[in-house]
Amino acid sequence: MSEANPRRAGATATDEFSARQQEVDEARASEEGQEGRPYELRAATQGIFGELRADKAGLLAAIFLTIVLIGAVFAPWLAPQGPVEGNPSTASIDPIWAGGTWAHVLGTDAQGYDVLSRLMYGARTTLLIGFAVVLIAGLFGVTLGLIAGYRGGRTDRWLMRWVDVQVAFPGLLIALIMIAVLGPSKTSLIFVLSFNGWMVYARMTRGVVLAAKERPYVEAAEMVGCRPRRVMFVHILPNLTSSLVTLAVLEFARIILAEATLSFLGLGLQFPEVSLGVMANGGRDSFFSLPRLAIIPGVVITLIVLAVNFLASWLRVVFDPQEREKRFAAGATTAATTVEGAAT
Amino acid sequence: MTSATSATSTTSTDPARTGRPVPSDELLVEVDRLSINFPVGRSGFWGQHQQWVHAVDDVSFGIRRGETLGLVGESGSGKTTIGRAILRRIEPSSGWIRFRGQYITDTKGEELRRLRQYMQLVFQDPYASLNPRMTVLQLVAEPLVVHGRAKSIDAARGDVVKLLGRCGLPEDAADRHPHAFSGGQRQRIGIARALALRPAFIVADEPVSALDVSVRAQVVNLLQDLQHELGLTYLFIAHDLSVVRHISHRIAILYAGKLVELADSDSVYESPRHPYTEALLSSVPIPDPPLQRARRRIVLQGEIPNPIHPPPGCRFQTRCPLAQDRCRHEAPPLEEKAPGHWAACFFR
Predict the structure, then answer these.
(1) Could you report the per-residue pLDDT of B149-158, keeping only the tens digit for each?
(2) Which of A137, A308, B289, B323 ranks highest by number of CB atoms within 10 Å?
């Protein structure tokens, strides 16, 4: 802007500066009235969803996840049948594209259960476990990592030793012991997976906090008299958003698979309950006769993880002001040159 | 915006004006025999010797209410460390700091947080010291909210907008993010944040060295106008003498953690006592080519001494054109060479 122009400082410079500033402001104001509105305005009017429209993969992912979520949440009302409703007389019906009936769009399995219905109920459980574990483990790990990184010193050493000890234990072994004590159920599954999964959040958070707390604006926050909690949550935590979102998505995918593993070992969900992992594992028995029983839930798991990944990259852009700047700069180069031209 | 800028420009008609406010006799800040050492690794086979960086060594000075003390020294001389120590960001190894007559060297926790209302910092880098995720309103209102002076960010809006205007920022600045502003404007935001709590004392840590030469004078003038209006006391840290003369009442010259000269701004410029000050002064170019060419330029040889093993005697002896045997054994004390003019040299 005009301040960058080399000129002798002093009163005249101040006056000229303000005059030029006004010129630029006016030029910008008239520019804003026309099409190609500057980014800040666009963001204010269209919110974060304006960004989503520009991101094709993110948009598709959002639509897909919305459908899955609706199907999962409202499964008891939307599903054509219950998850374990059926009998051998309806067994092994082909899906609609292989000559099946509309009564069983995705066909039925060897027990005669409707695959689509099981898929909806399964997604319900899988998503519930995934979200719950990411939320619990994430909250716990991030809080501990924040405290360790920000406090430093002895607090940091003790908390990180705790993390090291837990990481050193084989997760599956702990899971086996804990489930043996707690008994297999959805709740104990969530508990065990959270217990095994929080350390990675703590470690990553601590690393980012160590770098972030040296930033001058964090010192500035301490200097104006913010309490430690405010410094941690208002000034340091937002720096973590993009890395945390990415990590949470990866963890979400890992947890879906871990739940499938535990269920396969008989330590996860018990018979009437169903999840995508249980379905995929169940399909393995008849993989050569009825491959679709393993493939369909497998494809759904893959698509969910993929969609969450795309959505995460959109979220990263939304939460990172620098990333937004880059997008804006790429899209608004023409607008900027017109403003500059008008000013000079 | 227009009213604020015109107010600034009417008072700052002449950049070389001498209308510095007259400070009172009351000492607002006193620093007494302040030393600061930082531990740096260990030496010896078993690591039995803790090594220390002697960043600041036995520094004493006072700042009167309403005064600006310029603190000048090259990189690594400890000037920032002193500023941070007065603000209680860095623990002193020994010595005392008094603020408004009270010893604050042992203040900590909630009491220290409360103390922040009365002493604030203007940062060197206006790009890194403003949180890019916050709007200007949030940045400037935050001190008010955390000290309970305002109920919420929005409740402070009126005060913040007024303050921003006073600091020469456009009216619509409050709802924008720092990245929408140039370096000079960002530094104005930083100043507004420091002033939000109406502190008595401000440490300005090289507030203009990250800025374009063209905007430096504007920011310095702003600081000076605010001092007039609000009766502020400044510790103005700088790494060369070109900026500080304009704003400072007195100037303290720091070399390798030691105070080498402390005097009125004008006498430092007109009759420097310490050879290091002379060298610093000769490095400031005069905007008059014939005069500049005729001038004897003192170019110091070598580097600032290693602060882990400072030389015995005078710390400047390794580079001093006047150094003699005595300087290598004995450290010259800071003595009053003329009324109000202190220097640490045996031969001046």
Answers:
(1) 888 888 999 9
(2) A137
In this structure, whether the domain defined by A44-343 belongs to CATH 1.10.245.10 is answered with no
pLDDT-derived band at B20, boundaries 50, 70, 90: low
Q: Across residues B152-178, what is the average pLDDT?
A: 90
Is A26 an interface residue toward B (CB < 8 Å)? Answer: no
Nearest CA distance, A83 vs chain B (angstrom)? 47
Give residue B19's pLDDT. 53
Return the structure tokens found at B145: 């909210």
Closest CA to B54 of B21, B92, B16: B92
- Helix or strand or coil: residue B321? coil
- A80-97 residue pLDDT tens: 887 777 777 777 777 777
Whether B132 and A18 lie within 8 Å, measured CB to CB: no
DSSP assignment, residue B341?
Answer: E
Q: Which of A6, A217, A225 is the closest to B146 by Cβ?
A: A225
Residue B101 exposed, middle or buried by CB count within 10 Å (0-12, 13-18, 19+): exposed
**Could you tell me which chain B residue has the CA closest to the CA of A321?**
B133
Tens of pLDDT, residue by residue over A128-153, are: 999 999 999 999 999 999 999 999 88
ipTM over 0.85: no
Nearest-by-Cβ selection for B142 from A1, A215, A226:
A226
Each residue's pLDDT tens digit, B223-247? 999 999 999 999 999 987 888 888 8
Tell me what pLDDT residue A18 has: 60
Nearest C-alpha in A relative to B133: A321
Asked whether the beta carbons of A272 and A83 are under 8 A apart, the reply is: yes
CB contact under 8 A, A8 and B125: no
State how far residue B48 is from chain A, nearest Cα, in angstroms: 21
Whether B58 contacts B287, CB under 8 Å: no
CB A64 within 8 A of CB A306: no
Rounded to a whole number, what is the distance in Å from the CA of B60 to chain A's nearest CA?
24
E runs forming strands in chain B? 27-43, 49-64, 68-72, 94-99, 102-103, 119-122, 201-205, 233-238, 250-255, 258-264, 335-338, 341-343
| Contact between residue B106 and residue B273 where contact means Cβ atoms under 8 Å apart | no
Q: Which residue of B has its CA nearest to A231?
A: B146
pLDDT in tens, A34-65: 444 444 444 444 555 666 666 788 888 889 98
Q: Which residue of A15, A219, A235 is in closest CB contact with B9?
A: A15
> Looking at the complex, does the CB of residue A213 fall below 8 Å from at least one CB of chain B?
no
Binning pLDDT at 50, 70 and 90, where does residue B35 land? very high
Helix, strand, or coil (residue A309): helix
Q: Which of A215, A222, A325 sits opposite B128 (nearest CB)?
A: A215
Task: Judge whether A205 and A151 are in contact, CB under 8 Å.
Answer: no
H-helix or E-strand spanning residue B215: helix B213-230
Q: How is chain A split into domains, by residue range?
A: 44-343
Specify the residue for token string 């804003």: A32
